[in-house]
């Protein structure tokens, strides 16, 4: 495990909505404070889990501003700030910087399927637009493009490209990055279920969905591993494993928002094209929450 100055547990926060599906900023602040009290080192605003494709730039900027103002300066607030349009991504990065973001999460452009050189140019443009730390986000299951290790290593040479949220599910790819990236670049798991394997390869932590429900357990697992207590870390991993899987029984963030509502945390519904889970999916989520005494 490689210790990171950005912490080990970052929560990819859901965006709470009211009954009218308008952003509930007060609920977002409450949720962020709760997550920090349970061990989160940082929060990510308006990422995929925050339903970023259906948020306006104005909503994203206000979310960053209000959450940043509410949290202690020691807690890092990352902002999702990219799309399939480089010019718009650069503009949003500048807006969230002014709103107080401490770092930028930059996802691989989706739908238009850029080449590896196009990906490099996109992320370089974002890194040059703001002085903030930039965390790359590779999630080919959603974007249809895989950010290859050789491209990551080129980007890691840029001064403020400091980390990657790696959600390809390909551990060999993680190994290739960590083998050559240097000591000032950090790899975070983008899949809760792969956090422990990625720590074993030299990763630094996780950008987590499950932490909405089990932040303390996840932080304990990471700390156990960092302290050489491998068996204890494994025990926590297996304790949480079924939760990790059920939270992706359908499209994220539908399961985690449903689980939070079941657990009594009001985060509201979903903006189309996302919609509530089916009855069988609700039953599966409820069964795991009940088994883990999270209700």
Description of the molecule:
By secondary structure, this protein is α/β, with parallel strands linked by helices. It is built from 12 helices and 8 strands. The radius of gyration is 18 Å and the shape is globular.
List keywords for this structure.
TIM Barrel, single chain, 8 strands, alpha/beta, 295 residues, eight-stranded parallel β-barrel
Explain briefly what this protein structure is.
This protein has helices at 25-37, 57-70, 86-99, 116-129, 140-143, 149-156, 171-180, 195-201, 211-226, 230-246, 254-262, 279-291; strands at 9-12, 42-45, 76-80, 103-107, 134-138, 161-166, 186-189, 205-208. The chain is α/β, with parallel strands linked by helices and 295 residues long.
What is this structure's SSE topology?
Blueprint: E1 9-12, H1 25-37, E2 42-45, H2 57-70, E3 76-80, H3 86-99, E4 103-107, H4 116-129, E5 134-138, H5 140-143, H6 149-156, E6 161-166, H7 171-180, E7 186-189, H8 195-201, E8 205-208, H9 211-226, H10 230-246, H11 254-262, H12 279-291
Parallel strand pairs: 1-2, 1-8, 2-3, 3-4, 4-5, 5-6, 6-7, 7-8
